[in-house]
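Board notes (copied after class):
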Amino acid sequence: MQSSGALLDTMPNLLARNVREFGDAPAYREKDLGIWQTWTWKEVSSEVMNLAKGLINLGVKEGDHVAVIGRNRPNLYGSLLAIQHLGAVPVPLYQDAVADEMEYIMSHCNATFAVVGDQEQVDKIYEISDSLKGFKDIVYVDPKGLRKYDKKKLHDFNSILKIGESDTGKLQSELENRMSKITGDTTCVLLYTSGTTGKSKGVVQTHKAIIGASMAAVEFDEFSNKDSILSYLPMAWVGDYMISVGLGMAAGGCINCPEGPDTMQPDLREIGPSFFFGPPSLWERLKTSVYIRIEDASPIKKAAFHYFMNTASKVGKDIMEKKSVGIWDRFKYSLGNLIIFGPLKNMLGMSKVRIAYTAGEAISSELFDFYRSLGINLKQLYGQTEASVFLTMQGNDEVYSDTVGTPLKGVELRIAESGEVLYKAPGTFKEYYKNPKATGETKDKEGWVATGDAGYMDDDTGQLRIIDRAKDVGKLKSGSLFAPKYVENKLKFFPNILEAVLFGDSRDHCVAFINIDLTAVGNWAERNNISYASYQELAAHEEVGKILKEHVEAVNMDLAKDPMMSGCQIRRFLILHKELDPDDGEITRTRKVKRSFVAEKYSDLVTALYSDKDSIETKTEVTYEDGRKGYLQASINLVDATLYQVQKHGEKAA
C-alpha cells in the first residue's frame, strides 16, 4: 500500500487522503424509495476495495476496459473508482444510447466486462453480444426483471461485493500489488467525445491529468469537503465525470444522486447543494418551467413577477457584484427578493447555491443575465474532453456574459493566426485511443492542443471570448460574419423555442430551422383552448407560426444593433415537424447539434428556404423508442421574417 505521505497524483491516493481527513463526513447520498441514503468516505473506501477484489476474482485484468452504464448512483461512481484501483480502465457510456452506439464504443475499446444499472442495459448488451469480441461478463446493480435470465455471465453487484468482503487475504494481496504499480501516468479513464463531426473518439486521460485539472479548479473557487453537488448529468459526459468524480474527489465534497431523471428538480430542492453545474440547455429548461408557471398564475401574481423582474434586470447583477445602486432601487430589489426572487430560487433548488457554472456550449447573454439578476452566482467555464474540462473559469468579481474566464493555474492559452484557440494544460489528454492520426492533428509535438473553437482574448476584461466552433464560423456572400451559435442562443432564450439551427455560410442571407418547446407551447395551447394530437400538429399550427415569427423578428432587431453580427439576421425560417433527436443522429447525447448532418439530412428543406416556395412536402426517417424505423410525412410552411437596417449608436430600428 502507498504511504500516507504519497503524492495526490492517483485516484487510490486521493481516496486514501479523503478517508484520513474526512473519514466520517458524507461522501455520497442517493435517494432510494423516497429516502436519502448516505455513505461516509470510510464506507465508500470499504465498498470500493471490496468491489475491486470481487472484480479481480471475476477475472478483470490490469489494462482491461470495463464499460460502466446507468443513471447517476453511488454504486456506479464507486465502480469507476474500484476499476481504477485494480489497474483497469473504466469506460462510461450513455445510459440512453441505442444498441448500435454502444456496440461501436464497446467494440472500439475492446471492453471485456461491464457494470450496469439495470435490465435495460443488460438487454442492450445482449443484443450486441455477438459483435463484441472478447467480451465476458456483466455485473448488474438492480436485479428487477432479471430473475429468469441465464446467470452464467450475469453477476449481482452485491454478490461481487460479498466475495471481496469474505476474502481471506489472497485477493487483498493482489489488489495491493496492482495499486503499487499505479502512477500519475497510468490511464485513469477512457472518455468518448460527443461526436458532433463524426464517430466519437476515445480520449485517454491519465490520473495526473484528471487530478491536476480538478485540483486547479478546487484552488480557484475554494471548493472544500463542506461543498455538496447534485449529480444528475449523464455519467459518460466529461462534464459529469470531472464534477462528480474529479472535483468531488479533489475537494472531498458530497455527491448527491437523485432518485431518477423525473425527480431531479424536487430532489435538487431537498438537497439544496452549494455547487451546481449545468449545460445551457438545462438553464433554458429551468427558465421555461418558470415562465410556464407564471403564465398559469393569477393576474396579480403575474403583474408582480414582471414588475420585480424588470427591477432585477436593471440592478440585480450590480447588487450581487456589490456595485453602487440607489436606495430606492435597492429597496425594490429587496422587496422583490422577499416575495418573488427568494421563492423562485427555492423552487429551482438554488437557495443555498454558492457557485453555479455553465459549460458545454455557449449560453446566450440574456439567459445568463436572467439568473445573475435573481442573485444566483452563475458563472462560465471553458474546456473540453481533451483538457479534462477545466481550462478557464470566472472569478466571483469578474463575471461577464460574453466571456468564459481566465486561464487556471498551469494553463497556457494561445490564439493561432486562423483565430483558433490553442492550449497547454495539466489536464491535457494523452492520446486518442487507437487513433494516432487524429492525435497528431489535434496535439502538436510541443504539447499545444487545438480546441476547434474560434476566439480571442478580450482586451477590456482580460478573459477568453469564444465566438463559435471554428469550423462553423464563416462569411456571407456580402463578407459579413456568419456565427450561427450566437444567433441560435438568442433564439433559444425564448421559452417557446427548444432548438434552432442557422444556415447561411457563403449564402446571400441566413435561414433557420426551429424546434418548438412542446412543454411551453403545449401549455400555451391549453390556455387558448387549442387542441392538438402530436408535436407535428402543434408545430404546424398557424398561430404557433405567428408567435415564432415575432421571436425571430425580435432577434433580428437585436442583431441589427450589432454591426458585426447584423448580417446574420434571419430572412426565412421553418418550424421542423419533429424534434431533433440523438436516436436519429441529429444531435449528440449532450444535445449539441450535428450541423453538417442536419444540413445533409434536410437538404430539401434548406433548398426550399432559399427558394420562392411558401411550403414544402417532406418525408423523414425516424427512430422509435424501441429501435424500429419509420417515416414521418409533413407539409411545412416557410415563413418570411422582417429584416432591419443596421443601427448606428443611438439610432432606433427602422
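Comment from the instructor: Residues 474-640 form a domain with the GMP Synthetase; Chain A, domain 3 fold (CATH 3.30.300.30). The two ends are 74 Å apart (CA to CA).
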